[in-house]
Design brief:
The structure holds 2 protein chains of 2 kinds. Chain A is an all-beta fold. Chain A is built from no helices and 11 strands. The chains are: A mainly beta, B mainly beta.
């Protein structure tokens, strides 16, 4: 069983819409959760991090964490074509040496 | 300031050769990580260094892989007797102490084993 699961997509949304990306994780003791954006051929770029249940907003991005459901999501408001990328969910599991465990990523395309 | 620097950006080698990949973390970052991203495999953890402590090597796929970190800064990942399945992008990340494990990635080294 994979430790971090994401829908691989592709997910397509029209420009200006809200893109919703979802991630579930298996280790209930996980404490730290991250969203990275990766453009094709580039390295992952940190978008958001969240540690506590609830919502965390940063500009057009909102991360949502529900530890009881072992679920973390990323909402992108007013999606732009430049948001088209693969979004990676990453978790630091309990007992780990602080390395990130990544999901397989969701490919997002924002259509102009 | 400067980000995580990796070299070379691309490396093509023949099967059976040894390769060395270099990572220069962000200045002052005490934690350094190596990951590998293979086509269709996603990102996987290889090894972790924290300050002068013994590294966590639990992610290394075989004994052909090794890494060292000199002076708590620059790290070198060595792959001996390369195989075709070693072809991947090797990513290095660093994190400052007490930063709740926020990791910043370098641009990676794309390794192709022919």
């Amino acid at each position: 069983q994979k430790e971090v699961e994401q829908n691989s997509g592709p997910l397509s949304v029209p420009e200006g819409a809200i893109a919703s990306l979802n991630c579930t994780y298996s280790d209930r003791g996980s404490q730290s959760f991250f969203w990275y954006r990766q453009y094709s051929g580039k390295s992952p770029e940190l978008i958001m991090f969240i540690y506590s249940n609830g919502d965390k907003e940063d500009g057009r991005f909102t991360a949502q964490l529900n530890k009881a459901s072992q679920y973390v999501s990323l909402l992108i408001r007013d999606s732009q074509p430049s948001d088209s990328a693969t979004y990676l969910c990453a978790v630091i599991s309990s007992g780990s040496a602080r390395q990130l465990t990544f999901g397989s990523g969701t490919q997002l395309t924002v259509l102009p | 300031g400067a980000g995580v620097s990796q070299s070379p950006s691309n490396k093509v080698t023949e099967k059976g050769k040894d390769v060395e990949l270099r990572c220069d973390p962000i200045s002052g970052h005490t934690a350094l990580y190596w990951y590998r991203q293979s086509l269709g495999q996603g990102l996987e953890f290889l090894i972790y260094f924290q300050g002068n402590s013994a590294p966590d090597k639990s992610g290394l796929p075989s004994d052909r892989f090794s890494a060292e970190r000199t002076g708590g800064s620059v790290s070198t990942l060595t792959i001996q007797r390369t195989q075709q399945e070693d072809s991947a992008v090797y990513l290095c990340a660093s994190s400052p102490t007490g930063a709740k494990n926020i990791q910043y990635f370098g641009a990676g080294t794309r390794l192709s084993v022919l």
